[in-house]
Amino acid sequence: MRHTTFRGLYIGTNGKDFINDSDPEKLAIWEGAIEDLEDLGLIKDRGYKREIFKLTREGYKVITIIKNELNKLFGSSPKIDIEEIYNKPAMNIILEAVENALTTGANSTVSIDVQQDIENSLSPIQIPPLKHTPKQIPTTPIVATKPIIQNATLTTEKDGQDTILILTLIVESNAPVNWLNDTLNGPHGNIYGGGVEIFPNQIGNNPSSVEVSTNVWQVVRRYSISKYAPSGDYYYSNISVKNAGMLESKIWPDELKVTI
To answer: Are residues 237 and 178 in the same domain?
Structure first.
């Protein structure tokens, strides 16, 4: 994600903001990082605004290689922050594996014992046991089930003289909730209606969905009503959601109304 908010430029993924401030050097570094990933063919602009990027086939290949190499070096259980091994010997091995795979089409078969290098580059607390053979973890395919809207509320808050409508849904779903359908009407009739994509667990997006507990998602959509808009009743209807399994919930039976 790359877009401008009231706090400035946001560049991030999966809820991680890479900038966090307006330092010009940091902005230039991360703008350049996006351009590098595009030039390498690892990400692609989803539209025409250069705000939302998706991984390409080559991008997924690189991610798989990196995960495999981290697994070889550190084992499958510990979660190693890639920033902790940046510019360290272990990173060089990973980069060599990526380059080898992309140029030859084969996965790396690096068999160098790097335990001593890792011990020299990481603090003792961060050193996990080295595994030369990736641990095989059995996986069971997840079958998505139809999402169920458990609760829906409409509240307001002030933004200067404007009013923000806040639509909040609690949804039961064993797959990420990534689509919202709704219709908003005001004193003079329809304001908008239809569907909008949600990017789960990505802070700063609107609308957003966050897994607040196992298989329970909170969906929040914010809409600004100008101080110049007419006074009266504003209400949502035709509310439903879809999840990553492309399954749609039933429409919430009630209209949600506030008076401004």
So the answer is: yes
DSSP string, 23-73: -HHHHHHHHHHHHHHHHTTSEEESSSSS--EEE-HHHHHHHHHHHHHHHHH
pTM of the model: 0.48
Q: How many domains is the chain partitioned into structurally?
A: 3
Q: What is the pLDDT of residues 87-128, one digit of tens each?
A: 777 778 878 877 777 666 555 444 334 444 444 444 444 434
pLDDT value of residue 223: 94
Please tell me whether residues 87 and 167 are part of one structural domain. Answer: no
> β-pairing, 43-45 with 16-17?
unpaired
The closest alpha carbon to 135, from 72, 61, 66, belongs to 72
